[in-house]
Amino acid sequence: MSLSSTLQLPDRRRNTAIGKILVESLSLEQTARAFVAYSLSGERRAAKRPLYSTSVNGQVISLCESDPEIAALFRQADSINADGQPMVTLSRFLARTPLPERVATTDLFPAVAALAAKAGLTFYMLGAAERVNAKAVEQVRKAYPGLKIVGRRNGYFGRDEEAEICDEIAALQPDILWISLGAPLEQAFVQRNLGRLAGVGIIKTAGGLLDFLSGEKARAPTWMQRFGFEWLFRTVLEPKRLLKRYVTTNPHALYVMLTKMR
């Protein structure tokens, strides 16, 4: 399964390799259309497990190159999006099939939601604190009145609760399950529970999506996103949490992209 095949695009020509990870060379619009097309397809109804979609940014590229176990978590995905402007820019010079644009989950969600509302698809929102989760769902329902959100749950639970949570989600059979637990926790969650979530159409890991949907956190100005400096904007807002992360992973990620992108 892949999003490229859903759009009947040749898979081998739609991938860009960055180190150990294969990233789909799809635009944001193509990705959103593929989510909806797959959710409505006979392939989805016949599938024994959900299609699993995730994304990578500079931090993830660095982690995957340094830790084989984390790399394995991401390589389990059927589709990986490019959630980082630097990799898009460098791919134009280093890759045979350049990445057409950044597919950030915070940009992908509204594109998918708008199409899903028209198509009658259903969402389940998992992750973040209870207050943030509830506020995010409230804001989404206001923005997309026709969108059906069949369930939600905060991301504060123990591993012993996962089976019950997954059984509840599987019973609701949402077309798209958005999981916002942060990397690599959300990828590990999917690895443990992919089989339990049969009946779900697509699982999309979403990082801090619910924080942005709820309005708890602000996006960087458009020009900063366009030039690949959203990480700097976020670091200024949360220096204690993010400064060390970006100082250690960004240079390594740049090295990996320059030497291992093809």
Would you mind describing this structure in some detail?
- The chain is α/β, with parallel strands linked by helices.
- It has a single domain, classed as Rossmann fold.
- The protein is 53% helix and 15% strand.
- It has a six-stranded parallel β-sheet, sandwiched between helices. Strands 1-2 form a two-stranded antiparallel ribbon.
- It is globular.
- The two termini are 22 Å apart.
> How many domain modules?
1
Radius of gyration, whole Å:
17 Å
Q: How would you classify the helix and strand content by structural class?
A: alpha/beta
* Low-pLDDT ranges: none
Main β-sheet, spatial strand arrangement: 4-3-8-7-5-6
**Architecture per CATH nomenclature, i.e. the level-2 architecture:** 3-Layer(aba) Sandwich
Strand content: 5-15%
Largest beta-sheet details: 6 strands, parallel
The total count of helices amounts to 14
The residue fraction in helices comes out at: 40-55%
Give the CATH topology. Answer: Rossmann fold
Report the order of strands and helices.
HEEHHEHHEHHEHEHEHEHHHH
What is the arithmetic mean of pLDDT?
Answer: 91
Distance between the termini: 22 Å
CATH class: Alpha Beta
User: Count of DSSP E strands?
Assistant: 8
**Approximate shape:** globular
Summarize the structure.
The chain has helices spanning 3-6, 28-40, 42-46, 58-66, 68-75, 85-94, 105-119, 130-143, 162-172, 185-193, 209-214, 222-226, 230-237, 239-260; strands at residues 15-18, 21-24, 51-56, 79-82, 122-127, 148-153, 176-180, 202-205. The protein is of the alpha/beta class and 262 residues long.
